[in-house]
Design brief:
Elements (H helix, E strand, L loop, with lengths): L19 H9 L3 H12 L4 H13 L4
Helix pairs in contact: 1-2, 2-3
Length: 64
Amino acid sequence: MTTQRQSLRRSRNNRMIAGVCGGLAEFFGVSTFWFRLAFVLALIPGGVPGILVYLLMVMIVPSE
């Protein structure tokens, strides 16, 4: 049995801002809600951790 691993890409269909959460959800096979919740929770302690990680992912992860 061969399984082909999908590469990490920003989603074009499942996006609100840049598709980072949608791409992570498709890559790991979970609901987009959990990644969006994680980024919102990362914004609570001042915003810098969540925004910084999100912007890095936008720059590093290629789009579909």
